[in-house]
Amino acid sequence: MPPLPNSHMFKMSHLKKKISLESYYSAADILNKLEELTGLVYLQDDNNPVIGFLPKNYLITQNNQNFLFTKTDLNKYKFSSYIENLLDFTQFQSQELKNSNREEISFKGGYIGF
Question: What SS3 class is residue 27?
């Protein structure tokens, strides 16, 4: 089995391709190599595994305060604002979804996390 490349060796072209887990590598192997990427999560969804990472925004809740962070570069984020109401964070950008190319392979809205 060939070794997996380190996460810093990935280019955006790699990130836009669908990765088949029916290969030499287990999901754990792939997740281990991607561990440095912000927002890394794995879901086994009815035999359709999903790996999510590098969200446009993410939210951290501590001591009943919600902190919103926004992506500024490939794996860089900055604090954007405090969010009073979680519903404000969870509203989809419907116009952006309407204008998107449905044939493109990528995650198109929704929330992954725990």
Answer: helix
* pLDDT grade for 110, boundaries at 50, 70 and 90: low
CA distance 26 to 12: 22
Do residues 50 and 37 make contact, with C-beta atoms less than 8 angstroms apart? no
Q: Where are the alpha helices (DSSP H) in the chain?
A: 12-15, 27-33, 86-90, 94-99
Domain ranges of the chain: 7-99
- Write the CB contacts of 109 (distance below 8 Å, at least 6 apart in sequence): 92, 93, 97
Q: Give tens-digit pLDDT for 47-93.
A: 777 888 888 888 888 998 999 999 999 899 999 988 888 887 777 55
- Residue 69: both structure tokens together: 């962070």
